[in-house]
Every structure is written in C-alpha cells, then in structure tokens.
Automatic annotation (TrEMBL):
The keyword Lipid metabolism applies. Pfam families: ACAS_N, AMP-binding, AMP-binding_C. Its EC number is 6.2.1.1, 6.2.1.17. GO terms for molecular function: acetate-CoA ligase activity; propionate-CoA ligase activity. It catalyses: acetate + ATP + CoA = acetyl-CoA + AMP + diphosphate; butanoate + ATP + CoA = butanoyl-CoA + AMP + diphosphate; propanoate + ATP + CoA = propanoyl-CoA + AMP + diphosphate. The lineage of its organism: Eukaryota, Metazoa, Chordata, Craniata, Vertebrata. Keywords: Lipid metabolism. Residues 31-75 form the Acetyl-coenzyme A synthetase N-terminal domain. This is Acyl-CoA synthetase short-chain family member 3, mitochondrial. SUPFAM superfamilies: Acetyl-CoA synthetase-like.
Length: 606
C-alpha cells in the first residue's frame, strides 16, 4: 500500500498542534492558579508569593499575594546581571529627525538608575505619582522605568492631547513631579510642549513641585519659571544611581487615562506583579518570540500598546524593542515600515489596520517596499480596530507573512483573543476572525438585556470574572466608579452642548480608518441654530475637550433615539443601521433615523 508521507506528516502535525493548544487551554480552565503560578516563574521575585489568587472580591482579584518584585529590575537589571548587557534593548528610529540609535541593556540601566536618582533628589518616593508628557523619544521610556525603579507610579499622557485634557489629568492624578520635553516633531512641523504644559498648569488647581524638561538635541533650549523648571541634562550630570525598590505585587505601576475631560476622570490602574507575569508570558506564547529577537510595536507610548509592547513586554522578555518616531506614510513615504523592519531585522511586528490602509492607499502595489527584504519577519499582528478582509489580504501579499488580527483594550493590558503563535495555534485562521480566547479569558456574548445570545448572533462581548493577571486593577482613586460606571467616550463631550439633549456615538465604516465616530444627536425643541453651525460647534467642543485624537467630525440630527426596556440605547443596532446592515425589525424611531442617514451618510464606496 502506498502512503503519502507528506500528507501523513501534515496530518500528524495538525493533530499535535490541536492537542497542544487544547491541553494549554484545559490546563488554565481546570486550575488557573497552577497555570499562572508556573507562568510567574519567568519573573524574578524578591519575595515569593504566598497565595497565587485571592478572588474574595471578583471585581478586584489579587494575584501573587505576598510576592514582592520590581518591574525595572525584571525589565533591565536582571538581563545585565545575566550577561546580556551588551544586547540591544532599544532601537530608536526617528525619520522625522534623521536619528537612528541602538541602546543596550547596560546603557538603559545606566540612564534609568541615574534618572531614578534625579527623581528621588527632588522628593519623589515610593507611592508618589509622576506625570509624563513626552514625544516618542527614549527618554520617555527611561522615565517610565525610572519611576518603576523607585516604586513611583507613572501616568504617561499622549502628546496629542490638548492642554485642557492634560490639566484634568494633573488635577486628578496629583503628581509630585511632571516630566516633559521641549518639542514634539511631526512631518513638516514641530509641537511646542512647554506652552501646552504652562496652559495646563494654569487651568489645573494642583501644581506639581517641579517640571523636568528634556531639551531635544539640535533645537533651541527652553525652560519654565526658575522655581519650577529642571533641566534634564544638568540634573543627569550630577545624579547618583539609585537601586531598585522592592514593591508588593499589587503595587500600582501606572495609571492610564482613557476617557475625555468631562465627568469624573477614569484612569486605569495596572499592578506590577500580575502585569509582569502576563506580558512576559504573551511575548513567547502569543507572539512566538525568543529572547534576543527584534520586536516592533508601531504605536505610541501614550497608548496601552506602547506601555505593554513598546516598553515593558519586550524588555521583560529580553527582546530588542523598536521605538519609532514617525508615521506609516509621509516620513518620508510609504516605504517607511518596510525599511524599518528590513534594516533592524524585525522578527514580528504589531500595528493597526489604519496604518496598513494608509500605506496601501499611497502605494497600492507596494512598489516602494519591494526594495527591502524582510527575511527575518515571521508574523504581522494587527489590533486596535477590526481589520477588513481586503486590508488583511493586501498585507499578507505584500509583507509576505501571516497577518493575525487579535483583540484587546486598555483595560485588559494584553490580548483577550488571539492566534497564540507560541502555543502552535494556526497562523492561517479563518479570514476575518481575531483568534480564540487567550488563556485566562472566559469570553461570551450577550444582548442588550444581558442575556447570552445564540451562536452567529451579534451582541455585546463580555469577559467573565475574575480577570487574569495584568488586567485593570481598578480606576485611580475611584473603585466605586469602576464597579458602577464605564466609558461614555465622546458622548460626554457632545452632551456638553446646550442644544443637545440626547446622544449616541457609533462607529461609521471608513475606507481608510476602518471606523470613525458618528454622533446621532437629539436637539432641544426650541433650538433655532442651523444644522451646519451646530455641527461645527459640536466638533469644536469635542476637539477642545478631548483633543484632535478623537478624530471626530461627523454629526447627524434625529428626532429621537431608541431605548431598550431597561432604558439603554441599543448601540449595536444603531451601528448596523448606520452602516446599512440592519438586523432588526425597525420600529418607527429607527425608520426616522434611517431616513436621516440616507440623506446625510453615503454607503461605503458610493
């Protein structure tokens, strides 16, 4: 009997992959404490934990109770001590300034330990908070790590936010010290940070003791009032290195604010121990990387991807992380991503579908990228929004590797669903999917009445408690709000307008960005203003309160918004209607909205 050996080998590998993945998933389901206890062995602990999980309060589970560690030690010092000090830790690639710099683990340790000494010299101690408002420069990462080194909590704020946004965070976080830079660099222009900081401090009631300013090379030197301003270079010249401070596993590593300036600020708190365990585990098991390989997350340090996978994750795992100060296009052209991956030997990359769409829009055949061999690239991961199939297939063809969509958010800190490459999950999952639930996450789908839906039915994704290590610990200074309230996003800003009495914001499909926010607004009966004038006022209001990062430009006015029996707005149904994919029998209020949408919002491609 003839046997097709290649077919048999393929089937054997397929079955073994299935059983390996299944065994991993069953292990964490059956005994999550054992699963995560074993994962925690990849982290260096100053004191061993006495209890892996305390879920007395399922909303606020405590992982690795009794354990003590230091995030900076695990991300930097232990690699130096283990003989890897000369390995590249950070590759800084800045096409907007023409700078390329390789920074070793030993050099990071030297910079961070001295910066920690600067912070301590100016009164920052364990438990204090430091606000970081900086562009994509290595010094921003050094500041994050220096805070972690001394047990101070950092709150890094995206440099694209307006002064008002910054001021609200300063008031809520109450930082002991603020660290900023002289300028941010964008294609064709520069962003002056100091006027933004000065305006924010004028607006805020809380004042930090000092403002440490990093003056960028080859640009004019700036400062603030002498009683407030500290110069980075001068301070570092006389600084004494500071050792790592041992902190409990549940010690807050950082606060990352996620909503606008209206209402009570909402800052996600991340712990030290669980976060370290989860990030280290995901680098090998989700992303399939070995220590020493080059990894690039093309995001901003101000977002959760930047915290998790530009700074902490790759350094914890002993990888080389690329810090990119540029754009997918325009710095100088669509070849940028190809160049960076080729020059630095990137093994895996993480970006947003929007970035790929931008490249494709300017270079449909990827002609600019063909001159750059990507011999070391194995996988391209995308997240941050749904990746449409056309974009996914274009990326596969032109980057020449599997393109794997996965889903997560600020609160999770790492992926909730993914194709876990390191667990031998398929690198060719069904097109249009975002993988399976990552070990640690129990995911289900419910309707607006909180009932679980049948398979192949649209609904709201929920994750059952308790959450795994590394997920949001709480909201900064407001655990009650964490339990009672979630993010109302742009709606809060729109409702600040005196003419608006009700509002729902949904995602409108967009050929470049994937989705953009669209506000459906109900106006006061006595409103006499023109529609165009109101749209301009509302867009400006959102920009002033949240900043241009909201990318908010589309508003339509309707007579009323539908409500469920419990009084909630069915946003999923509205989103389907907006995108010309209704899934329900429309009551009268939906018919009115549909009529308005036909008049104001065109279908994609028309």
């Amino acid at each position: 009997m003839k046997v097709d050996s290649e077919y048999v080998l393929h089937e054997w590998n397929t079955q073994m992959t299935y059983y390996f993945e299944l065994n991993t998933r069953l292990t964490w389901h059956v005994n999550p404490e054992k699963f995560w206890s074993e994962a925690a062995e990849g982290i260096t602990w100053f004191e061993q934990w006495t209890q892996t999980l305390d879920d007395t309060d399922t909303v606020f589970p405590k992982w690795f109770v009794g354990g003590k560690l230091n995030m900076c030690y695990n991300a930097v010092d232990r690699h130096v001590e283990n003989g890897r000090g000369d390995q590249a830790a950070v590759i800084y690639d800045s096409p907007v300034t023409g700078t390329k710099q390789v920074i070793t683990y030993r050099e990071v340790q030297e910079q961070v330990s001295r910066l920690a000494g600067v912070l301590v010299r100016h009164g920052v101690k364990t438990g204090d908070l430091v606000v970081i408002y900086m562009p994509m420069v290595p010094q921003a990462m050094f500041t994050m790590l220096a805070c972690a080194r001394i047990g101070a909590t950092h709150s890094l704020i995206f440099g694209g936010f307006a002064s008002k946004e910054l001021s609200v965070r300063i008031d809520h976080a109450k930082p002991k010290l603020l660290v900023t830079a002289s300028f941010g660099i964008e294609p064709g222009r520069r962003v002056e940070y100091i006027p933004l900081v000065e305006k924010a401090l004028e607006l805020s009631s809380h004042k930090p003791h000092k403002v440490l300013i990093y003056n960028r090379p080859s640009m004019e030197k700036v400062s603030m009032h002498p009683d407030l301003s500290l110069d980075w270079e001068e301070e570092m010249a006389t600084a004494r290195p500071h050792d790592c401070v041992s902190v409990p596993a549940h010690h807050p590593l950082y606060v990352l604010y996620t909503s606008g300036t209206t209402g009570t600020p909402k800052g996600v708190v991340r712990d030290s121990g669980g976060y370290a365990v989860m990030l280290n585990w995901t680098m090998s098991n989700v992303y399939g990387l070995a220590p020493g390989e080059v990894w690039w997350a093309a995001s901003d340090l101000g977002w959760v991807v930047g915290h998790s996978y530009i700074c902490y994750g790759p350094l914890l795992h002993g990888n080389t992380t690329v810090l990119y100060e540029g754009k997918p296009v325009g710095t100088p052209d669509p070849r940028a991503f190809f160049r960076v991956m080729s020059e630095h030997g990137t093994a895996s990359m993480f970006t947003a579908p929007t970035a790929i769409r931008a490249i494709r829009q300017q270079d449909p055949q990827a002609e600019h990228g063909k001159q750059y061999p990507l011999s070391r690239l194995r996988n391209l991961f995308v997240a941050g929004e749904r990746c449409d199939i056309e974009t996914l297939e274009w990326a596969k063809r032109n980057f020449g590797v599997p393109v794997l969509d996965h889903w997560w958010q600020t609160e999770s800190g790492s992926s909730i669903t993914a194709s876990c490459v390191g667990l031998d999950c398929s690198r060719t999952p069904p097109t249009g999917t975002a993988g399976k639930a990552v070990p640690g996450y129990n995911v289900t789908v419910i309707d607006d009445e909180m009932q679980q839906v049948k398979p192949r039915t649209l609904g709201n994704i929920v994750v059952k408690l308790p959450l795994p290590p590394g997920a949001a610990l709480s909201l900064w200074q407001n655990q009650t709000l964490f339990k009672e309230l979630y993010f109302t996003k742009i709606c809060e800003s729109v409702l600040l307008h005196s003419a608006v009495v009700d509002c729902a914001v949904v995602g409108l499909e967009d050929p470049l960005k994937g989705h953009v926010p669209l506000a459906l607004c109900v106006l006061r009966n006595d409103c006499q203003k023109s529609a165009d004038g109101l749209v301009n006022e509302i867009v400006k209001l959102v920009k002033d309160t949240i900043g241009p990062v909201a990318a908010f430009k589309k508003v339509v006015f309707v007579k009323a918004l539908p409500k469920t029996r419990s009084g909630k707005i069915p946003r999923s149904s509205l989103a389907n209607l907006v995108n010309h994919n209704p899934t329900i029998e429309d009551p009268e209020v939906f018919k009115d909205i549909e009529k308005v949408l036909r008049e104001t919002v065109k279908e994609p491609g028309k």
